[in-house]
Amino acid sequence: MSERKRILSGMRPTGPLHLGHYYGVIANWLKLQNEYDCFFFVADWHALTSEYKEARKIKTYVPGLVEDWVAAGLDPEKCVIFQQSSVKEHAELQLLLSMITPLGWLERNPTFKEQQVQLAAKDINTHGFLGYPVLMAADILMYLPAAVPVGKDQLPHTELMREIARRFNSLYDCNLLPEPEALLTEEAKLPGLDGRKMSKSYGNGISLSESMDDILPKVRGMLTDKNRLRKSDPGDPSICNLFPYHKLMTDPAKLPEIEEGCRNASWGCVDCKKVLLESIESFLAPIQERRSKLDSDTIQDILIAGNKKAQDFAQRTMAQVREVIGFDS
Q1: Distance separating alpha carbons of residues 5 and 13, to the nearest angstrom
Q2: Which residue, among 47, 60, 79, 67, has the nearest Cα to 207 in the 3D structure?
Q3: Is the model's pTM score more than 0.85?
Q4: Per-residue pLDDT tens for 266-306?
Q5: 36 near 268, Cβ under 8 Å?
Q6: Distance from CA of residue 7 to its chain's centroid?
Q7: What angle do the packed helices 269-292 and 55-72 form, to 10 degrees?
Q8: Calpha distance 167→161 (Å, rounded)
Q9: Where are the alpha helices (DSSP H) in the chain?
Q10: Better pLDDT: 205 or 151
Q11: 1 falls in which pLDDT band (50, 70, 90)?
């Protein structure tokens, strides 16, 4: 067994990944796969909590999500990539943990209250959505990890997971389930091309699978400093929608020149966008190269191998869980 600490993280299959996903999640995963024993899973059951009316569509997104991951640089030789619904033990552990999770813990979850407002049109007043944190806890605790990478907005879920693990161990007088630490990830959020949050529903992002021919008109139409009506007007990079992209994608050595050119009006927005297009093309080149070597059979093989590794681990964990609660055969 490896001496490296184990972590687990997942992502819901809802369509092609965009640059916001890369810098918000994937970039961190690429570092972690070299430092930890990583389990990364396609959270298709989680997608059902809000997209249950389009259950059939979720399955169609699974291969594309894995392709995006591998094209972006996740290495199946370094990490375990698997599909949540292919490891049925997740459902069993969720059921058992739901039996001991007080209803009040779930009702007080701030994320649940926020999502009730944000997703009002989807009718998420369901048992499945209320119990979302229990499924999340089962997903993570199944692999007995030392830590879980999360953003600040997920800290309430992480703490609830730790409380569930603590209650399980106390009720059954064992020390089986760990209380994983929250491995806070650096925030690197990109605004959408129109200045709003980058979202698939808004159609205001650049996906990792897009060609430069498709990206060109998007970048040309990007929102910039609204106060800069003419090229001769000085700009302010701190309020320009372009500059966050440059800070993440453009050679850092060039940033002072871009910033100064904007402030003294020696650079126009067209000049700035030209450099950004070059940066995006350089960023996407290795991703497109890796993608060109992938096909449906390769993706399927990755999932089959990853599902097997995850299930082997999950079966061992569940054997121990059944033993400590007295439900072993």
Answers
A1: 26
A2: 67
A3: yes
A4: 988 899 999 999 999 999 999 999 999 999 999 999 999 99
A5: no
A6: 14
A7: 100
A8: 10
A9: 19-21, 27-32, 44-51, 55-72, 89-98, 103-107, 110-118, 127-130, 132-141, 155-171, 212-220, 243-249, 255-263, 269-292, 296-325
A10: 205
A11: very low
For residue 52, what pLDDT is reported?
87
Closest CA to 7 of 202, 142, 101: 142
Q: How far is 166 from 67, CA to CA, in rounded Å?
A: 37
Measured from the Cβ of residue 153, the count of other Cβ atoms closer than 10 Å reads 11
Task: Give dist(CA 57, CA 254) in Å, integer.
Answer: 43
- Quote the Cα angle for 186-144-304, to 5°: 90
The neighbouring-strand residues paired with 7 are: 38, 147
Give 115's pLDDT tier (boundaries 50, 70, 90): low
- Please provide the distance, in angstroms rounded to a whole number, between the alpha carbons at the two ends of the chain: 28
> Is residue 272 helix, strand or coil?
helix
> 110 to each of 10, 14, 17, 25, 153, how far by Cα in Å?
21, 23, 27, 22, 10
Read off the pLDDT of residues 207-236 as tens digits, 9 standing for 90 and up: 999 999 999 999 999 988 888 878 888 889
Per the CB < 8 A criterion, the answer to whether 159 and 193 are in contact is no
- Tokens representing residue 265 in the block: 């009006």
Structure token pair of residue 202 = 């808004």
Q: Judge contact between 7 and 38, C-beta under 8 A.
A: yes
> What is the DSSP pairing of strand 37-42 with strand 6-11?
parallel
Q: How far apart (Å, rounded) are the C-alpha atoms in residues 244 and 215?
A: 17
Task: Give how far Cα 202 sits from Cα of 145, 198, 242, 246, Å.
Answer: 36, 7, 18, 22
Neighbours of 128 (CB within 10 A): 15
Contact 192, 204 (CB under 8 A): yes
Q: What is the DSSP string of 25-61?
A: IIHHHHHHTTTSEEEEEE-HHHHHHHHGGGHHHHHHH
